[in-house]
Fold UTRO protein.
Amino acid sequence: EKAVNLKKDLAEMQEWMTQAEEEYLEKDFEYKSPEELENAVEEMKRAKEDVLQKEVRVKILKDNIKMLATKVPSSGQDLATELNVVLENYQLLCNRIRGKCHTLEEVWSCWIELLQYLDLETAWLNNLEERVQMTENLPDRLDAVNDALESLESVLRHPADNRTQIRELGQTLIDGGILDDIISEKLEAFNARYEELSHLAVSRQIALEQQLQTMRETEHMLQVLQENLVELDRQLTSYLTDRVDAFQMPQEAQ
């Protein structure tokens, strides 16, 4: 009777493992939304816990069969053979579920990381757009134009590392067929805005550089003219003080 019960337990254990494999490993999952992916991660976590909890039952079966083998070698030997098959299948099931759980957790982590990088770069684009807008309707002063140019250039020096991460993470998920529609839409919108703002910012940078160069040249010309006028004023004052006749002055003074 003991042997019959153990044989029944082994059969039930094998049946449970077959059902677990069908439920958790053989279903084709399509992750088209973050909610579906998150639910799949949670389900695999529960599956892993469920499978590992059966380890106690497997150990009890193993101990009972060993004990029976010492008392009834013939019955124990047959059960030991069946036990080895169950143990191998159980270990395989554990490894496969652990592997799938780890993979899904990595995929979820990849998605969250992608969102974080997109948030960072979107904040930078907002900042860039604000700086570009600040270059419009500037006061016609050299210091104002120079400050606006330096402010814009400081934002444009933003490293490309985050955009590289966005491209690689997005492509990894899309290649796996995971959230591909959502990610493609997000990346398309981000890249379009990035290209538009980058080109606009660079155009404004070039325009400000040209404006600044023109203002500096004009300022230099005015400075030279001012210096010449001061010198001329000094000379005329000297002539008037000395009561010099106009026809005795240099032509430019006349």
